[in-house]
Amino acid sequence: MTMKTTGRGTSRVTIRRFERGDRDAFLSLYETVFDRDRSTDWFRWKYRDNPYADHVPIVVAEDDGDLVGCRSLFAQELRGDGAVRTAFQPCDTMVHPDYRRRGLFDRMNERTVERYTDGDPAFFFNFPNEASIRGNRNHGWREIGTVPLYYRIQDPVGVLGQWLDGTDGNATERHDGTGATSLARAVADGVHRSGDRLLAPDVDLEIGRYESPPADVLETVYRRSIPEALHTNRTASFYRWRLANPDHEYVTYVAKRAGEPVAALVTAAVEDRLRIVETLPRAIDSERTALERLLAAVLVDAGDHRLVTAFGETLPRPARYRFYPDTRPPLSTALQPSSRTLLARDLDAGAAVEHSSIADWTFSRLDLDTT
Question: Which intervals hold domain N-acetyltransferase (predicted)?
Answer without folding.
Answer: 13-165
